[in-house]
Amino acid sequence: MRIRIAAVAAVAALGAAGAAIGVASAASSATPTLTGKVGINDAFVITLKTSSGKAVKTLKSGFYQLKVTDGSDIHNFQIEGPGLDKRVTTVNFKGTKTVRVHFRKGKYKFYCMPHESSMFGFFKVT
Questions:
Q1: In the chain, where does DSSP find H-type helix?
Q2: Domain 33-125 maps to which CATH number in 3.90.1170.20, 3.40.630.10, 2.60.40.420, 3.60.20.10?
Q3: Fewer CB in a 10 Å sphere around the end CB: N or C, the chain?
Q4: Model confidence over 107-121: pLDDT tens digits?
């Protein structure tokens, strides 16, 4: 009986240690979040920023969460680059959407399709 109790306790301890390691590695490998905004209060403005609020100019390749707030039903948010052509929001949509994107090395463009000539930005992925 003592051996069985000791074995159960050992298995429980290993499970708890494994869970703690899993939580630590999940926290350290969290997917970075970028924030896009387009047409807030119907303005002809589109932005893409890091979680610290800085305009995106250069990113490291990898996966990102892209949270886009679209404040107008006359704009949309689209992003294109190597292996990616993603319409995150559509014209007539107002609200917030979050998508997971994979950025590979190269040059990317984000823009509002109906107003692409004036509402756009670029960034590089290394």
A1: 2-28
A2: 2.60.40.420
A3: N
A4: 999 999 999 999 999
